[in-house]
Amino acid sequence: MKAKWLVSVLIGALVLSPIEPAAAAEERSIEDEIIYDVLVDRYFNKKIDNDFEVSAQDPAAFSGGDFAGLSDQMMHIKDMGFTMMSIGSVFATSTYDGKTVLDYSQLERHFGTEEELQALIEQSHKEDMKVMVDIPTQSLSADHAWAAENPEWFTKNEDGTLALDTSNAEVQKQLVVAIGDFIKKYEIDGLRLVETDKVDAEFIEIFSSEMKNIRDIYLINDQESEGIDGMDAVVLPDAEEVLRNSYKNFDQDSSGLPELIEESSGDLIRVDSLLGSRFTADAVAERGFPPTRWRLIMTQLLTMPGIPVVQYGSETAMNGSELPESHQIMDLAVEEELIDHITNLNSLRNSSEAMRTGETEVLHEEDGWIVYKRFNEEEMWIVAINNSSSTKSISIPASEIGSDKEMRGLFESDVVRQESNGDYRITLDREIADTFHVTEERGLNTAYLAALAVLYVLFMFFIWLVWRKGKQRKADGAVKNK
């Protein structure tokens, strides 16, 4: 299906009943965000004057991506409907992913200048998008700026990197000062603490309080965990595993989805992460067709409760079973069908408060066939995902939908009306997902039919006039010839 056609269907469906637009940037909460997770070095190389010892052929080396490149191609992210870019660590580092920090007071020279980072942030805010930066503390470079004078602040990891002792009061003080200075200088909107399972819990509370005193800023983590004091949101435990196992091929065990959907509100949810393998690798291993697998799992991710975090390259079905293979250079010249699907799902989520923060009720789940309801007092949606090898149907009673309603599918253009027994019956072919907007049944559009009738009468009158004029001309010609 063509993107423009899908968008017109989506807009038409949304107009059927009034829906408030997504909150303005200054009014958004973390639950209103859709996060696009990207590595600066792997996105787009705009400037060559910062390409120091770059090698696109070596997957473990810097590849040349920079702040200017991210600014240049930002509209790719904006147009897909994401509201926040998480751009990784931007501090001076010895590795392309920014994790092995050398100095918190310096930007990584491969990524660009202070002015270019400022320009990136300003452009993001102009486009009503927020920017989040990673704060690594547990895998720093052995040459970190603090290491020589303060070796007691660190412990050594097996791979030779250094971990800050965040329970040390002096370390806590220095981190608060360093990152505080950073967010005073650059008006970023969020921080993500890296490897939080190794970070002192008391420090997280202190750090969160100090950062939020400087600016109202989001603080999240990067690893699965239960709620952490001081965090605005954490990665929901087991969500990634349940989603990947449910959608890596058709006819999978999806029995874990209802519980996941019920527990995901307010938490970060993701299909994969920048920490390891890509979902495409699972699909390929199971001999699934990646574009179809991605369409279905994205429908699940972007219509369920929680805060979606989508990794760069998901829209191109990027592959990779381990690092750095899973951190490929972004390919922006790709088939747009999956991009269109993500765009339309994000447009729906951004336009619908019920999709972001509404209530959820799972109506059915069995053998890859799941149907659930997202709703609040103003609107209702039915999400149906058939991840099986056969056509599936479900009859939904009026007690769940209401009487005299109709459901309009946004992607398959189906219209479901109440049957004589009072139920609403949804049928989907194999490996198809759709999202239905519940509205009042419109029945026959009398105004439209009346307008058609008037047009028909006017058209017939026009034809009659043409016929009369033609007949008159023939008669006049015959008189002249006599």
Automatic annotation (TrEMBL):
It comes from the Bacteria. GO terms for biological process: carbohydrate metabolic process. This is Glycosidase. Residues 1-24 form the signal peptide. Residues 37-349 form the Glycosyl hydrolase family 13 catalytic domain. The keyword Zinc-finger does not apply. InterPro entries: Alpha-amylase-like_C, GH, GH13_cat_dom, Glyco_hydro_b. GO terms for molecular function: hydrolase activity, acting on glycosyl bonds; metal ion binding. The chain crosses the membrane at residues 447-467. PANTHER family: ALPHA-AMYLASE 1, ALPHA-AMYLASE FAMILY MEMBER. Keywords: Glycosidase, Hydrolase, Membrane, Metal-binding, Signal, Transmembrane, Transmembrane helix. Its cofactor is Ca(2+). The lineage of its organism: Bacteria, Bacillati, Bacillota, Bacilli, Bacillales. It comes from Planococcus koreensis.
